[in-house]
Design goal:
Layout (H helix, E strand, L loop, with lengths): L1 H9 L25 H18 L4 E8 L7 E10 L4 E10 L6
Antiparallel strand pairs: 1-2, 2-3
Length: about 100
């Protein structure tokens, strides 16, 4: 499930030819300014993507940690439950605000 969520978050909308609505839309936030409104939109975007594309998961909470913002990194924390096994998990997804420059 965690790998499926990572794929979902890393896929741009309309990237897949046969499933154009698959993806999270997180790439819309690249190179953007970080403020309270943007962080709320990011949380909603993630929750909606999981709701529509990962039926095995129920979202408990979504958080965005801005401690690495100066380095261009946000940590997205997803707390979720898998109802089939009644197990809770959490996942931290690193989201880079700028393209990698190595």
């Amino acid at each position: 499930v965690q790998q499926s969520l990572e794929i979902l978050f890393g896929t741009r909308l309309e990237e897949r030819i046969l499933q154009e609505d698959f993806g999270s839309g997180l790439h819309e936030f690249l190179f953007g300014e970080v403020n309270v409104g943007i962080l709320n939109r990011m949380r909603n975007t993630i929750a909606e993507a999981v709701l529509y594309h990962e039926p095995r998961v129920e979202v408990n909470s979504v958080g965005v940690d801005v401690d690495g913002q100066i380095e261009g990194l946000l940590h997205i924390t997803l707390d979720y439950t898998i109802p089939a096994s009644n197990t809770r998990f959490n996942m931290v997804y690193p989201f880079y605000l700028q393209e990698a420059s190595i």
